[in-house]
Structures are given as C-alpha cells and as structure tokens.
TrEMBL record:
Belongs to the Glu/Leu/Phe/Val dehydrogenases family. The lineage of its organism: Bacteria, Pseudomonadati, Bacteroidota, Flavobacteriia, Flavobacteriales. Pfam families: ELFV_dehydrog (PF00208), ELFV_dehydrog_N (PF02812). One of its GO terms (biological process) is L-glutamate catabolic process. The keyword Cytoplasm does not apply. This is Glutamate dehydrogenase. SMART domains: ELFV_dehydrog (SM00839). GO terms for molecular function: glutamate dehydrogenase (NAD+) activity; nucleotide binding. NAD(+) binds at residues 198, 229. Keywords: NAD, Nucleotide-binding, Oxidoreductase. The record marks 150 as: Important for catalysis.
C-alpha cells in the first residue's frame, strides 16, 4: 500500500530493465534500440486554475509521447500525486509495447496531472481538466495523440476533454473529431463495454492460462490490490466464473474474508470519489503488510507501479500473478518470483483489453458507427485470445518467461516497421 513516490523507485528504471533484457536477447538492431530507449517528445505544462474560493492554483501536467512508428500516440491520463516525468516516461514506453503486442495501429503515450483529486470539488476538477486540455493544445489530436482514462480519471474526464478540444477547432470539423479521446460516456460517442474491457482482459488471462493447464477458475482463490475500474471489473468476471475473492487492498484499507468477499456489495459500499473500501462491514481489516503473503491461487495488482519489490516477492505464495496495473513488479521482485517458479502474465498483455477496446471506440467514431455490447465484447475476446495464444507459443517454443516473450513479439513488430520503411535495414 506504499506510494510510488515514497518508495523512491523509478518506474522508468523498471521498464528500461525489461526493455534491455529483451533487446539483448533478441539482438535488436542497434539504431532501433537507440530510438526506442528514449521518448520522441515530452511535454510539461504549468497552468493556472481558479478554485471555488476564488484563489488561483497552478498545476503541472505531463504528456510523454514515446513512439509512433506504428500509428498515432495512444495512452491514458492519470490524476495522482505520484505523476511526474519519470512515471509518464515509463508509462508511455509501456504503451508502445502494449499497442504493438496487441497488433493495433497505434504508438505509445501517457500523461496526467500531479494532483490528489480527492482534495478538489467536481467543479474544480472540471476546470482543471479543461485548462489542462487547453494547455496541451495541438499536442493531442484524433489522428495524432489520443488520451484515455487511467487512475482517477474516467468517462466524465474524457467528456470534458473532448468538449474542450471541440471548442478549439472549427465548428464544421467537430462532428467527425469525436475520436480525440476514448473511454467517453456512451452519449458522446463512447463504446459499449470500454468501461469493463481492462478488467475483462485480466479475467480472460486467468481463464486462458488455467485452461491451457487443464484447470478451471471455479474454486480458485484470488486477491486484488486496487478496487477501481480494473480491480472491480476483474473481480466481477472472476467471481462470476466461480473464483473466490479473499482479500482486497486500496490506498485506505486491506480487507479479508475467508469465505469470499461479495464483489458487488463492496462496489456499492465504496464510493469512487471518496475512494474507500474502508469500513466495509462484511469483511475483517488486516494489516496492509500481510496482503501479498496471503495463501491464494492468484494475485492481481491493479493499482500503482513498483508494488511487488524484493521484500514483497519473498512473501508471495501464489503461483500466478496477473498484472492489471502497469509496472507493478520491479526487477528484483520479478527475479525472485521467477526463481520461485511463479508465472507473471505481464501488464502489456494482461491489461491490454482497455486499449484494444479504445481502438474499437476510435474506429466506431471515425467510421460513424455504433457498436453494441455483444459486438464490442465479442471482438475483444477474439483479439485477446489470439494474442494470448501467440505469446503462449513463444513461451513454449523458446522456453522463456511470459514477459520476455511478450516483449519480443512487441519489439519485433516495431523493428520490422522501421526496417520496412528503409531507414535502418
Ligand atoms: N482504466 C484502464 O482502462 C486501464 C488501467 N490500467 C492500469 O490499472 C491500474 C488501475 O487503474 P484504474 O483501475 O483505472 O484506476 P482507478 O483510479 O479506477 O483505481 C485505482 C485503485 O488503486 C487504488 N490505489 C491507489 N493507490 C494505492 C496504494 N498506494 N495501495 C493500494 N491501492 C491503491 C485506489 O484506491 P483508493 O481509491 O483508495 O485511492 C483504487 O482502488 C493502473 O496501474 C492503470 O495504469 C491499465 C490499463 C487500462
Ligand atoms: O485505452 C487507452 O487508450 C489506454 C489505456 C491505458 O492507459 C493503458 O492501457 O495503460
């Protein structure tokens, strides 16, 4: 339950160690390695916003565009007090690998505002979002860089961004630029199913992995760190398939119930804005440091990065880790887990349901279509299943871990794109 900043660990160091490990193994073209080691552009904006009491606060926002060899930049916006240039850089790089691995025509970007949104009213958050959008200006665009939700941002945030962006372009162009952001509310061009897509992908990762081993989700036990969009929806689908949620941790509390926590009851209890699972009456509160060491079959980190460090990894007994969050496992943590024969389904596949669904929303808006839930979830399931099987083949054929396999597939696709452009044969 510690925050990234207080741990003083660099998320960029984590993603670079993963990249370098893969680049060495696949003997990546030296020039392409140089390009991919650094962001294409890093935008930092400082912008003033009037508060409810009439005072003015100046905020700092980031948008890092890592790479666009495969298409427009794509990735979420996070509102959190741990957002800084290191985090944005790392998260943008993860997006490049994720979109490539998923086979999407997108590159990678990420950004956000260094802010604790709980300290602000809804009206203030709206003004902050609108001023941030205005400050980003032409650095975002529906064919250039397309934001989406991440920690503490949601469909409402995306609607404010879209509305502000529209006010800056000619009226005749507004109706066909709704794909400026994805993850919007349905009424303004959002896609049925985008809300649950990331959690669904986490669930499907578990299902496909276990099926391949001849096992089922029924009666498997799991624990979840983070009970926001990803943590809730992953739990929802897992419990529906018969798995049991033993423990949940957020920034405020750690809950445990041996018989299984009622996911829907907990969701009703926890108000996303106040953001707390604390004081939920139908589970006991346990010390946060006991969480990762609980006896269970599956652990789902679905909150911040660098949570599974060496100290935490030593405690872990679960054989399967599903990375719902981006970058939840640092290098030392990963080394220990692999040495202990745990399987880590890496973030760049495990949470890719969100960006795949965002791609569907982008297509829907671009083509003037309206997809229903069945179509959207059906296509998501098909794409995730194909991608899972490709990684699984790579794991089995090369006898490597899942992250290295996923990285090799992701980076090879970008390497081919550069080579086919004739720049770095
Ligand atoms: N939304 C999406 O589509 C995608 C999200 N992701 C990744 O999934 C993760 C979660 O995102 P999302 O669910 O959207 O975010 P939300 O804002 O919806 O939820 C975040 C959750 O994490 C919890 N949390 C925050 N800090 C801590 C902490 N120090 N210890 C334990 N829990 C904490 C929050 O608790 P509290 O409310 O108490 O602060 C909350 O329950 C992130 O890493 C994000 O990048 C990846 C792909 C797509
Ligand atoms: O939906 C998207 O475009 C990106 C979501 C995201 O930020 C992520 O996958 O980490």
């Amino acid at each position: 339950m510690k925050k990234e900043k207080t741990k003083k660990q660099s998320m960029h160091a984590t993603v670079m160690s993963q990249f370098n490990k893969t680049a060495d193994r696949m003997d990546l073209n030296v020039n392409i390695r140089k390009i991919l080691s650094i962001s294409n552009s890093e935008i930092i904006v400082h912008f003033p916003v009037k508060m409810d009491d009439g005072s003015v606060e100046v905020f700092t926002g980031y948008r890092v565009q890592h790479n666009n060899a495969l298409g427009p930049y794509k990735g979420g916006l996070r509102y959190h007090d741990t957002v800084d240039i290191d985090a944005a850089r790392a998260l943008a790089m993860w997006m490049t690998w994720k979109t490539s691995l998923a086979g999407l025509p997108f590159g990678g970007a990420k950004g956000g505002i260094e802010i604790d949104p709980r300290k602000y009213s809804i009206g203030e958050l709206e003004r902050i979002t609108r001023r941030f959008t205005y400050a980003l200006g032409e650095n975002i665009g529906p064919e250039h860089d397309i934001p989406a939700p991440d920690i503490n941002t949601n469909a409402q945030t995306m609607a404010w961004i879209a509305d502000t962006y529209m006010s800056t372009i000619p009226t005749s162009e507004r109706s066909h630029n709704r794909h400026i952001v994805t993850g919007k509310p349905l009424g303004v061009g959002g896609l049925e199913g985008r809300d649950r897509a990331t959690g669904y992908g986490v669930f499907l990762s578990a299902k496909l992995y276990l099926e391949n081993k001849g096992e089922r989700l029924e009666d498997k036990t799991f624990i979840v760190q983070g009970f926001g969009n990803v943590g809730y929806w992953a739990s929802h689908f897992l419990v529906k398939e018969g798995a049991r949620l033993l423990a949940v941790q957020d920034a405020h509390a750690t809950l445990y119930k041996k018989e299984g926590i009622d996911v829907e009851g907990l969701a009703v209890h926890s108000n996303p804005r106040k953001g707390s699972i604390a004081d939920y009456p139908d589970a006991v509160t346990i010390p946060p440091e006991d969480f990762f060491g609980l006896e269970c079959d599956i652990i789902i980190p679905a909150a911040l990065g660098n949570q599974i460090t060496a100290v935490v990894a030593e405690k872990i007994k679960a054989p399967l880790i599903l990375e719902g969050a981006n970058g939840p496992t640092d290098k030392e943590g990963e080394d220990i887990l692999l040495r202990n024969n745990a399987t880590i389904i890496p973030d760049i596949f495990c949470n890719s349901g969100g960006v795949i669904s965002s791609y569907f929303e982008w297509l829907q808006n671009r083509n003037g279509e309206l997809w229903d839930l069945e179509e959207s979830m059906g296509k998501l399931q098909k794409k995730l299943t194909e991608n899972f099987k490709r990684i699984q083949r790579e794991v089995e054929e090369k006898n490597i871990d899942w992250r290295t396999a996923a990285y090799m597939l992701a980076i090879s696709r970008i390497e081919t794109a550069y080579q086919q452009r004739g720049i770095f044969p």
